[in-house]
Amino acid sequence: MSDKKKQVYLVDDHPIVRQGLIKLIEQENGLEVCGESGNVSDALSAIRELGPDVILVDISLEDSNGIELIRIIDGLGLKIPMLVLSMHDESLYAEHALRAGASGYVMKQAAATTLIQAIEKVLDGEIYVSKTMSSQMLKMAFRSGGDDPRTGAELLSLRELEVFELIGRGNSTREIAEQLNLSIKTIETYRAHIKDKLQLRSGTELMQRAIRWVESESMR
Q1: Which pTM was predicted?
Q2: What residue ranges do the domains of the chain occupy?
Q3: Could you tell me which CATH class the domain 6-138 is placed in?
Q4: How far apart are the first and last CA of the chain?
Q5: What is the 8-class DSSP label of residue 63?
Q6: For 161-173, how does the pLDDT look when each residue is reduced to its tens digit (9 = 90+)?
Q7: CB 199 within 8 A of CB 156
Q8: If you ran DSSP here, which 8-state letter would residue 73 be given?
Q9: Residue 155, exposed/middle/buried by CB under 10 A (0-12, 13-18, 19+)?
Q10: How many helices and strands, by DSSP H and E, does the chain display?
């Protein structure tokens, strides 16, 4: 068997986080970081050139988001396992990541050993999510009757969820547009879609619901 180290590529918009991950990963005998970047365009160029064995990607990036990067790589047919490492709640984002083509999801609050185990698992061709998330997904898969079991914020798309969270954190439509690099009109459209999906009648109800959701997530 070859003793060549598995090559890991990091995509995270925080340089300090990347440096910490490099130190953690390279403590493992069988792993080595071959490159790093903070945005989708640089990541795509480097990944094509380096051909890593696994990609570790955050959801929030400088020029887009990790889910979009995962979709692009999956669409290119590169067959590289991708593991999401993010501060965003697994119960709401993991399903989006897996559907986009990711092989697993780890929250940044997890122990270092958990991350290494997750990397090793996806390198072996398996899917990694936490035990709690795995149980939740099984319950959804075996729920009878064909009804969509998702309620509330789980009905929202990834981008709608980002907008919803920013509303709950007190951002105005203009501020959200600036943070997500989208037009004000586009954000207004997302707001309308969110209100429809959550059956809210006004912008005030939307803001109240978003604030309550952000508060409940912070208490988990």
Answers
A1: 0.68
A2: 6-138, 152-218
A3: alpha beta
A4: 44
A5: S
A6: 989 989 888 888 8
A7: no
A8: H
A9: middle
A10: 10, 5
